[in-house]
Design a protein that fits this description.
By secondary structure, the chain is mostly helical. It folds into two domains: about 1-100, Rna Polymerase Sigma Factor, Chain: A (Orthogonal Bundle), CATH 1.10.1740.10; about 110-185, Orthogonal Bundle (Arc Repressor Mutant, subunit A). The chain has helices spanning about 1-25, 30-50, 55-70, 80-100, 110-120, 130-135, 140-150, 155-165, 170-185. Helix 7 packs across helix 9 (about 170-185). The N and C termini lie far apart (about 45 Å). InterPro entries: RNA_pol_sigma-70-like (IPR039425), RNA_pol_sigma-70_dom (IPR014284), RNA_pol_sigma70_r2 (IPR007627), RNA_pol_sigma70_r4_t2 (IPR013249), RNA_pol_sigma_r2 (IPR013325), RNA_pol_sigma_r3/r4-like (IPR013324), WH-like_DNA-bd_sf (IPR036388). Keywords: DNA-binding, Sigma factor, Transcription, Transcription regulation.
């Protein structure tokens, strides 16, 4: 019974979000509830990449400004509205790093290390931490983006496909190829 209640609540929230998006396309003032709902998670996503509150706030503002001004181009493809926002956030973050020639940072938490480590069979998680860090730093920016989206942010392959403008299957294939590449760099069999 509880599952049914949670499911119907989620459907109601999804429907009201669709209504808000439709209203925001007509009148920008309806974008505010969407902003309020997603600001914190987009901010945290960007903060993990920049590790600077002021810079993160600046990039986050740009993300929501672009989302507001381009809301008419949003199309519901069966994914959460947040996937579209993350796509904008990732593009803005990457643009910042290219424009400023800034170093990318990788925020490794116990949870993110554990998530990646589960995909890389090892003997001792702590023994391989330096190897994991080294393997992550050797990845190309596009590869690192995919690993971060999947293991650090917990996105599904379908959401990753939407964010990176690739198919769901392509996201899976790329992810597992990157993991194989990391296994080789870590010399993990």
């Amino acid at each position: 019974m509880d599952d049914l209640i949670r499911y119907s609540e989620s459907l109601m929230q999804e429907e009201s979000e669709k209504e808000l998006i439709a209203k925001a396309k007509e009148n920008p003032r309806w974008f505010e509830p969407l902003y309020d709902k997603y600001y914190k998670q987009i901010f945290l996503f960007l903060y993990k990449r920049h590790l600077n509150k002021e810079l993160t706030a600046e990039v986050c503002s740009t993300v929501f400004y672009k989302a507001l001004t381009k809301i008419n181009s949003y199309q519901d493809r069966g994914l959460p509205f947040s996937s579209w926002l993350y796509k904008i956030a990732l593009n803005e973050s990457n643009y910042f790093f290219r424009r400023k020639s800034a170093e990318r940072t990788i925020l490794l938490t116990e949870e993110s290390i554990s998530s990646v480590s589960n995909e890389l069979p090892t003997t001792e998680e702590n023994d391989n931490l330096p190897l994991l860090k080294a393997a992550l730093t050797q990845l190309k920016p596009k590869e690192l983006n995919l690993i971060e989206l999947r293991f650090f942010n917990g996105f599904s392959f379908k959401e990753i496909g939407e964010i990176l403008s690739i198919t769901e299957n392509n996201a899976k294939v790329r992810c597992y190829r990157i993991l194989d590449k990391m296994r080789i760099k870590m010399d993990v069999k």
